[in-house]
Specification:
The chain has 7 helices and 17 strands. It has helices at 8-17, 60-65, 123-132, 158-163, 202-212, 222-230, 267-275; strands at 42-45, 50-56, 88-94, 100-110, 113-119, 140-143, 149-154, 178-181, 184-189, 195-200, 217-219, 281-289, 298-301, 304-317, 320-328, 337-338, 345-349. A hairpin with a 5-residue loop joins β3 (88-94) and β4. It starts with 7 loop residues before the first helix and ends in an 8-residue tail after the last strand.
């Protein structure tokens, strides 16, 4: 299914600022790619890569708790912002076979509303599938991607810049926290650097962007992908949907999976893998020199054509990239090659968290 188009008002605004390159909402060759060698404080438009689903109704919390693999009851409501009071959660939606159909950040937008930030190419399919199970529940599911704008602001100076926005009156969330102020939602993602996603209607987003651009360098969405990849935070997009169970994406190590909550689709398989099985694949951080791999691309060894799968990629140079790759645990990186190119230099980088959970 085709995703909801980027809001035309926002698209027109970005074209006047020349603020994205090919592959984003507006094509431009004059904007930095946001690679690792610069732009310590930056902002980027995420509206072409992130979709937003709204789930509202008196039964929204109970309904979603029965569908997702993390414990939604641990999310604090709007305004909660402090140690032990996360307002933002990584979560996933599995098939009955325990494979992830989507992976997303979720927060409570109001008393009876939750919003999900998902890969934009999956908004329609996830919305349709969730709607199949609403039945008599008082729940409405809506794709609001075309009505909202998603902006990333990150770097050592991002906190002070976000706090200075006139719309926020100095309110900035702690990591994994959320601030809702007027028509703006600010989500603080737990990455390696201060990182915020701001959600707003297109008119408000224009004001936010102009204020942020006073202190942050405008780059394309590759810089956001790089921040997430370096932090070891995966995503599930169309090329890898319905192929991987949560533990293969290290979700148990990054607070994206609960083994204490009640039933959800695929729960039996996920739990069996945790307590009775032996995980044969997990996610690693690899560098690629000489070629930019594609999401969904296979990696192999001379003896194994199914050694791994690329799930998230960010460029660091014209022919270099970092990628999160789900691989067989038994495979040595020294034996790995891409299915299309044997000359690529591939190395492993330590993840910033432990998998011994």
């Amino acid at each position: 299914m085709n995703p909801e188009p980027v809001n035309p008002i926002w698209k027109q605004f970005l074209s006047t600022r020349d603020s994205t390159r090919e592959g984003s909402a507006v094509a431009s060759a004059n904007v930095p790619s946001g690679r690792e060698a610069g732009e310590p404080n930056w902002l980027a438009d995420l509206s072409s890569s992130i979709g937003i689903l709204s789930v509202t109704g008196a039964d929204a919390s109970e309904f979603l708790q029965a569908q997702f693999c993390n414990d939604l009851t641990t999310i604090q409501g709007p305004g909660a912002n402090g140690p032990g009071a996360p307002g933002l959660q990584l979560n996933g939606y599995c098939s009955p076979k325990g494979r992830l159909l989507g992976l997303f950040w979720i927060y409570q937008h109001g008393e009876n509303e939750f919003r999900l930030l998902v890969s934009r190419d999956l908004t329609k399919s996830l919305s349709s599938r969730l709607s199949m199970f609403v039945l008599r529940s008082k729940v409405e599911i809506k794709d609001v991607s075309g009505e909202m704008v998603a902006i990333a602001a990150a770097g050592p100076g991002a906190e002070a810049t976000v706090a200075g926005l006139s719309e926020l009156a100095g309110k900035v969330p702690l990591p994994s926290g959320v601030v809702l102020e007027s028509s703006v939602a600010v989500l603080a993602l737990p990455l390696l650097e201060p990182a915020y996603v701001l959600l707003a209607d297109p008119e408000t987003a224009q004001s936010l962007w102009e204020q942020l651009a006073g202190n942050l360098i405008e780059v394309d969405a590759n810089r956001w992908e790089l921040a997430c990849v370096r932090a070891g935070v995966p995503t599930v997009s169309q090329p890898v949907a319905d192929k991987l169970i949560p533990q293969m994406l290290n979700m148990q190590a990054i607070n994206g999976l609960s083994f204490k909550k009640g039933c959800y689709p695929g729960q039996e398989i996920v739990a069996r893998m945790q307590y009775l099985g032996k995980l044969k694949r997990n996610m690693r951080l690899l560098s690629f020199k000489g070629h930019i791999p594609a999401v969904g691309q296979s990696i192999q060894t001379p003896d194994d054509a199914d050694a791994g799968l690329v799930v998230r990629v960010a460029e660091t140079d014209a022919a270099e990239a970092l990628a999160l790759v789900v691989m067989k645990i038994s495979v040595a990186v020294s034996d790995v090659q891409l299915e299309t190119d044997n000359a690529v230099e591939i190395n492993e980088i330590a993840l910033p968290y432990s998998l011994e959970v």
